[in-house]
Amino acid sequence: MIKIDKLKKNYGKLEVLKGISTEIGQGEVLAIIGPSGSGKSTFLRCINMLETPTDGQIWFKDQIITEKKTNIMKVRENVGMVFQHFHLFPHKTVLENLTYAPMKVKKLSKAEAVNQARELLKKVGLADKESSYPNRLSGGQKQRVAIARALAMNPEVMLFDEPTSALDPEMVKEVLDVMKSLAHTGMTMLIVTHEMGFAKEVADRVLFLDEGLLVEESAPEEFFSNPKSQRAKDFLEKVL
Amino acid sequence: MNLDFETIRPSLPYIMEGIPTTLKVVAVAAVIGFILGILLSILKISRIKPLNWIADFYTSIFRGTPLVLQLMLIYFGSPQILGIQIEAFQAAFLAFGLNSAAYISEIIRGGILAVDKGQREAALALGVPYSSMMLNIILPQAIKNILPSLVNELISLTKESAVVTIIGLGDIMRRSYIVGGETYKFFEPILFAGLIYYVMVMVLTILGKVIERRMRRSD
């Protein structure tokens, strides 16, 4: 579904990604882990072109999205993204956060958008919050709204950029539970995370990045019990 | 101090008839200034350098010269620039509108830059086009934050509108001056004009506070 070929990203002289290649199949759940500064977030943000790659190609289905002539806005409609700091629209209610893009971009009628939004809010357990403003919600609730907002566009892929890193510990589980049930629906998911337990349990494959390189790529059982590279061993020793 | 309002009392309604003139100049100039100010601020934050230059040059001209000079250039210069003498009202709308656009564009630019960068990314990630993102996501948040500065600009505009006296528009200021000339008493009518301006500014201040409170309901 997504194919990444020799992806490179430089910020001036700083090489953040030094040529990463991989493929992601439909319905696959990928955990992207690695030390901070390894390029995980940059890698994820290249996939919906929030960062413009310096070199290399990314295919989304049969489209090369890194080419200039590709309408990236159309691609983004199909690629949902969830941020570490939620980025809900603070001047809109929860319901409006969920209906805005479907109405604006997909031209859904208000009734359709509202119906769908209520359905999604039920799924993330926040049906009673639809008329609240984001500032009234806890971190965990905000992130669940953010997930619902991304799902409201009916994306084929969901990108998660450290979705639980800004949360108080007691709120991590409610967000991970929503993500887990999403994974069970067959959604293709790319998750940058520090939650090793979650990665082990939910991911089909683990990508371990270090210093801009894809150092290791394997099934979670194998990666966590028997890492091949020294760098992955060192990393796991520190975090587990 | 001996104040004598008796002599000018018959002329007070005449001075007050200047209120609509003042309000008209302020209202039209505020609308022109606000819309043009938004457009200029968007040019200023554009990644296309020449657009930044155009908007910055515009601002430097209107901030770098006196407002009264701009008004006179537009009014007295119109026959040479446009080939026709424009009306005093039109000159006032233009001068005040163009001038306050320069100030408002700076205020809005600051407001846009103060909106969290994540808002832009969230909108882009949802496939929302640039124009909708600006109009529905960024500007409402920016304007909420800069509302006090905008009210301030509107207050300045109200007071500075007294400058239209110079091109013969019958606003509050000019009428009070005329009454002074006719009665040989300048202190009282001008004091009265001052009171009118003060009340108008107070009304604006209260209105600004009401709007601000309404916009803060999402906090």
Describe the structure in your own words:
The complex is a heterodimer of chains A (240) and B (219). Helix content of chain A is 38%, strand content 25%. In chain A, the strands form two sheets. A six-stranded mixed β-sheet of chain A has the order 6-7-8-3-9-10, with helices on both faces. In chain A, strands 2-1-4-5 form a four-stranded antiparallel β-sheet, covered by helices on one side. Chain A is globular and about 55 Å long. Chain A is α/β, with parallel strands linked by helices. Chain A contains nine helices and ten strands. Chain B has 219 residues and is mostly helical. Helix content of chain B is 81%, strand content 0%. Chain B contains ten helices and no strands. Chain B has helices spanning 5-8, 12-16, 18-45, 49-64, 67-82, 88-114, 117-125, 130-160, 172-183, 187-215. The longest helix of chain B has 31 residues, at 130-160. The model of chain B has no long low-confidence stretch (mean pLDDT 94). Chain A binds chain B through residues 48, 50, 73-74, 76-77, 79-81, 83, 85, 87-92, 100-101, 104-105, 133-135, 149-150, 153, and chain B through 116, 118-119, 121-129, 132, 136-137, 140-141, 144, 217-219.
